[in-house]
Amino acid sequence: MPDANGDGGTSGELRITVEELRPDWVTIRPELSDFRKMVELERIPNLLEQTLIAWLKGHPKAKVRAALGLVEDGFTIAVHLWLDGP
Length: 86
Description:
By secondary structure, the protein is α+β, with helices and mostly antiparallel strands. The protein has helices spanning 34-40, 44-58, and strands at residues 9-11, 14-22, 25-30, 63-72, 75-84.
């Protein structure tokens, strides 16, 4: 699964993945157990942002049609993107 650099990414031991669910639908999320997610909640939004920016730079023809952030306890824990273009 690609990450910010297109191939899976880590920051420390926190891995953020970009999963292309369909050609026009991408999700960016951490690979965490529920317990680890609770421990890492404050770090996740920044890592999601970094991964999203890098992924968009790697896919310059993709245009975001819609985005949905999934929030837990006030922290964004995942992002879904719907795209137009390749």
